[in-house]
Task: structure prediction
Amino acid sequence: MAAKQIATPDIASQVFLRDPAAGVLALQAQGPLVRIRLPLIGRAWVTTTHAATKDVLKRDEDFRMTKAGKRPAGLQWWMPRSVRLLADNMLGRDGDAHRRLRGKVDRAFAKRGIEALEPRVAAWADRLLGPLAERREIDLVADYARPFPADVIADLLGVGAARRDAFVARAAGFADTSTPMRTLSSVLGTGGFVRFVRAMVGEARKTPRDGLLRDLLSDDDPLGEAELVSMVFLLMFAGFETTTNLISGSVLALERNPAAKAAWLADPHPRGIEELVRHVSAVAGSKPRFAAREAVVQGITVPAGALVMALPIAANYDPAMFDAPKRLVLDRLPNPHLGFGAGPHFCLGNQLARLELRVALQRLYARFPDLRLTDDRPAYHERAGHRALKSLPVRLAA
Ligand code: HEM
Result:
């Protein structure tokens, strides 16, 4: 069966991001994989069902991050050398090269260790929430959901107090890909970022501090300097904007469902977190892969060399897998969402993300139980890949 080549609906549009359930249905009407044009990437295939999304993510022999001897998927010829360096991280590698890098940090992100971080994560949330009490209205994105994960990652890495604020500020600027101009400026700013991380690593060598950076430096088979810089970059980048979007999207979803919110806050069970991850689908699209050879996915033939982006958002809103996918059902069970991806690149930080979300929500609502939206239809950044609210204005007290 050949796939249709119609470019609708636009997965980066406000319409799609506001109502993915309808958008996914419209995509599915064109087949389990469709060919569309993506900004900065060009022509690519995207998955439209749970089964196709899982297939592409799991079949890593067919769908690879790198084309033999060529640059990783998504990297453009015009991007500076520093970008190439940063992009050469575990998410951009396949097979043994990927396993080696992931093996260096797997243990640090395992469930038990991450759960032990709860008091520190809660302290970061409280530190941000304290000063907000003086204000009546805030932007939940800029004032809470954005700085919070940056603080948590800096802490986890063991970035010292002297560098922490600069790290958090640089991370915020760097992760801002909200418009093509800002993406370009963040791409062009990578040289400065690389120098900054090198200096940070140099300091950690001289004065080791508790944290992942020290563990990486004292590994029996330590990473090379370039690998270390791109690892720090990946951990920061992968865990930052994603978490911001997950937290802000969750507050929006909860505020629109007050009864479900009240029941969950009274008993904040893990099922609620899974449902929020599904419903928000903060990572709407995966990193693009190359088809290493001609591959058939759910009856659709993808030619060798084609770019393919799996859409977790399509999996998460697939009515064949989830009853009434548009509804937020906080005790939905089972909930086989693909919000953290699947296969060898399954989100390394999934336990941390779950912890951050739960703690961020619990601390926020404990301090501001009367929080209300002041804009019922906030807008998303019109991008494929991330489902990111531009802002979320809220009133903190009744
Ligand atoms: C908060 C919400 C988060 C969501 C929704 C999310 C989602 C994802 C998804 C879908 C992937 C797979 C990408 C692909 O296959 O192309 C991924 C990979 C990854 N995530 Fe997350 N993530 C989140 C938070 C985090 C955090 C907090 C960290 C760590 C600090 C993290 C670190 C990573 C890394 C390192 C990878 C690449 C893993 C590999 O290549 O083996 N993520 N994430």
Observations:
- The beta strands are 33-38, 42-47, 63-64, 137-139, 289-291, 295-297, 300-302, 307-309, 372-373, 393-395.
- The chain has one domain: 14-395.
